Amino acid sequence: MDKILVAKDVTKRFGNHTALNKVSLEIPKNSIYGLLGPNGAGKTTLIRIINQITYPDTGQVLFDGKPLEPKHISMIGYLPEERGLYKSMKVGEQALYLAQLKGLGKVEAKTRLKFWFDKLEIGDWWNKKVQELSKGMAQKIQFIVTVLHEPKLLIFDEPFSGFDPINANIIKDEILQLKEGGTSIIFSTHRMESVEELCEYIALIHESNKILDGKLSDIKKAYKNNVFRVGLCTDNGNVLVNELMDKFNIKMPNYVIEDSQLDFNIQLPSSDTRELLTYLASKANINHFEETVPSANDIFIQTVKNKNVDE
Amino acid sequence: MNKLMLIIKREYLAKVRNKSFVIMTFLSPILIVGMIVLIAYLAKINDNETRVIGILNESNFFSNDFNSTEATSFVVFRNITLEEAKDSTTNMGYYGLLHIPLNDNLETVSANSFFYSKETPNTSVLDKLEDVFQARLQKKKLQDLGVSTEDYASIDNRFEISTATFSGEQNLKGLTEMKAIIGGAFGYLIMMFIIIYGGFVMRSVIEEKTSRIIEVIISSVKPFQLMLGKIIGTSFAGVTQFAIWIISASLLLFAVVYFFDIDLGGVNTTPNLPMDTATTIESAQSNGKMQLYINELVKIPWFMLITFFVIYFILGYLIYSSIYAAIGAAVDNETDTQQFIFPIILPLMLAIYVGFFSVFSNPHGPIAVAFSLFPLTSPIVMLMRLPGGIGDGGVPLWQLLTSIILLIGTFMAIVWLAAKIYRIGILMYGKKPTYKELIKWLRY
Predict the structure, then answer these.
(1) Which residue from B minimizes the CA distance to A52?
(2) What region holds the ABC transporter domain (chain A) (predicted)?
(3) Which of A18, A118, A204, B104 could lock onto A212 through a cystine, CB 3.0 to 4.6 A?
(4) Is B343 found in the same domain as B226?
């Protein structure tokens, strides 16, 4: 079985509101999976179902090929979006408590905690009270507690909110190391650009429906529309722009001419760029020429637009 | 099960390590004992004042009737005028002056007697003076009717009807009330415990919501486990606190009484005792019946009473604290709890007051029976009735069993409902819920 988690037609309603409408997902093992969508799309509800905090009205979730059971809870690590710690408890004591709730023995939990505290260089926080910590410091503790019991599946809901860039990078590296170690990871976020570079697979959720999923590189391939970004070194940019529009029969309103430098985007009818490049090379010095790959955000907006047109 | 133990342990430690909890635990007994000592001390001072009253007696009556006591002493003026007597009284700093004019007729003398004082006289002083006049007048009237003092004394006989149950067990007057007070004390304890520690459970749930740790925890344990662990852990903390209070307060009280020799008799320990009970006990004492009362108190089925106290305490506390937990889960902060708290406190208050009034007058009357069956009031009201025993002359067995069965049924229903509200509520932020909303949650 190469899927760590499979959701089949999962539906969840709260009163008259449908939070998830027949959502199906397949999350491959040992990958980073991005669950993307705006606030209120239903991501958190789906994650809570995976964590058995709530249960689907209809549909099924399989963990490692078997229907979800209470014993799976200890194989999942979950960092919720709304996360916090007991303010008046000491850091070490609290981490130990949360680790024991995940089923770790006291001695084992302590050894692992020491390891992680040293790794993230926070060993001297053990006896501090949580209320003395900054938000970023508390987030580190929460991260440790999430990964401590070495779960097969890690779920991070908005993992980088509250971290400064330096610590966000530290955490990002730790997550990548965990993935190297064989863990499967789900990222859930509405700030798509923040995890795009990490994810191999994504699913887009919009208004309780999954509107798109698959391998990110495949999706990008499917969504790219032969737009190229070009930078030329020329003194008579305006003339060149007009010639280009006539010759290739295209609209090209977005161009910038500055200090003998012409920058523009151009959309071609096919992915064949040879003709254009030959032409450009004969006219001017090419500074750069690259295909613009749509971002997850672009894809999302486009998919939502298409969907609305379809309806 | 193991996780439940972990939660209970954490909740217990979090509670007993809390600074304000520690302070309350150790300060309260000192405050309570201090209050008792202060009241006893003040009462003693109040009694210590001796009032001196001057008497100018121009008549031939009352020559031996005014006897000095600890609180009041009398100084007799002779052969001076009223004005001189008034001056002397003021100069000597006496409390007041009683003037009895000269006349042959006792009634006229009494009617024309005056008490002069600097300020409005104390009622107890006046009572004392009036008693003397009344006794003297009564004696004279009896003489006029031809009844001798001895004859009169022989008809002055208080009567008390003796009561017994059909099984022949003899009852003592006032015992019903005494038993109700003992039961009432147990009931009151339950109410206090529910209000204090139910509130703790609620605040602890709110704290988990506001600190946002709740979702971290319930991704590891079931919400129901967390709720149950919280309730049990908090109640252990409560029992610890109560035990410390009782032990340290009694030790302190003993020490204070022993070292400072303060007479606690000055404190009226049973201010709620109806007047006739107090007088009955008094007369019982004078009649040597006290032994009978003590026998009756020993005969109260303490073992049975404490067993049922534990049963009603556990069930009652679990019912109410799970409601408190549900309220805590439904709201975002403590100020929003008011609208939900009142309906909980209401049955508790009703139980205490209705219990005291109806059980006192008639422990087996319809109101007492109804309230001791209704699950939200039964833990308190049934305990007030129970010192009378079970079965013959006490609470009928069927009522006791019905009440417990109803309580268990309610317990299961309420915990189930509360757990549902709790499960939904802990994940809801930023909403101020209405009752309508809560009912909707029950159907999720």
Answers:
(1) B219
(2) 5-232
(3) A204
(4) yes
Residues B311, B404 contacting (CB under 8 angstroms): yes
Q: Are B312 and B379 in contact (CB under 8 A)?
A: yes
- Percent of chain B whose predicted confidence (pLDDT) is above 70: 85
Residues of B in contact with A11 (CB under 8 A): none
Shortest CA gap B170–chain A (Å): 60
Mean pLDDT (chain B, rounded) = 81
Are B14 and B71 contained in the same domain? no
Q: In this complex, do A84 and B14 lie within 8 Å of one another by their Cβ atoms?
A: no
Taking contacts as CB-CB distances below 8 angstroms, the residues of chain A near B213 are 83-86
**Chain A residues close to B223, C-beta within 8 Å:** 53
Domain that holds residue B71: 49-148
For A197-212, the pLDDT digits (tens) are 888 999 999 889 998 8
Task: Give B51 or A143, the one with higher predicted confidence.
Answer: A143
> Between chains, do A82 and B444 touch, taking CB under 8 Å as contact?
no
In sequence order, the 6+-apart residues with CB closer than 8 A to the CB of B306 are none
Residues B142 and B187 grouped into a single domain: no
pLDDT of residue A165: 85
- A51 interface with B at CB cutoff 8 Å: yes
Nearest in space to A135 (alpha carbons), one of A71, A77, A83 = A83
- Give me the domains of chain A, ranges plus CATH numbers: 3-221 (3.40.50.300), 225-291 (3.30.70.3100)
Distance (Å, rounded) from C-alpha B255 to C-alpha B220?
A: 50
Q: Are residues B124 and B246 in the same domain?
A: no
Q: Are residues B197 and B142 in the same domain?
A: no
**Percentage, residues of chain A above pLDDT 90:** 33
Q: Count CA within 13 A, CB hemisphere, residue B224.
A: 10
Q: Which residues from B are below 8 Å from A142, CB to CB?
A: 216
Same domain, B212 and B342: yes
